[in-house]
Request: fold
Amino acid sequence: MSTSAPRPSVLFVCVHNAGRSQMGAAFLTHLAGDRVEVRSAGSAPADSVNPAVVEAMKEVGIDISDRTPKVLSTEAVRSSDVVITMGCGDACPVFPGKRYLDWQLDDPAGQGVDAVRPIRDAVEQRVRGLLAELGIEASA
Reply:
């Protein structure tokens, strides 16, 4: 019998899955490594990740240039322990026993990298707070 707790899974959701949810997933993966299962999705995914978001993340040493927005599925929600919506009023499927958080953050869509930086920094702080709540020490 294993004494280690199962790995928590976290799903980040925003409308286009091109900005906030991509940053959240990237920070969580960067800070938690394989100790957390990380997903992101959008209710109406864009064709690509916002270039200003890619640039802002690159500034802090995280490359998300190869990420592709994904469509939100019921299965992604069902298989996640924590579902984080990013201030976009998504109609996310609700399942009993899941933890839902709504992070009110400005939308980086159509913004330049100067406007994305404070959003990026807010996402990082919230991800660090989430790790603390989950009892997982950030690796960076």
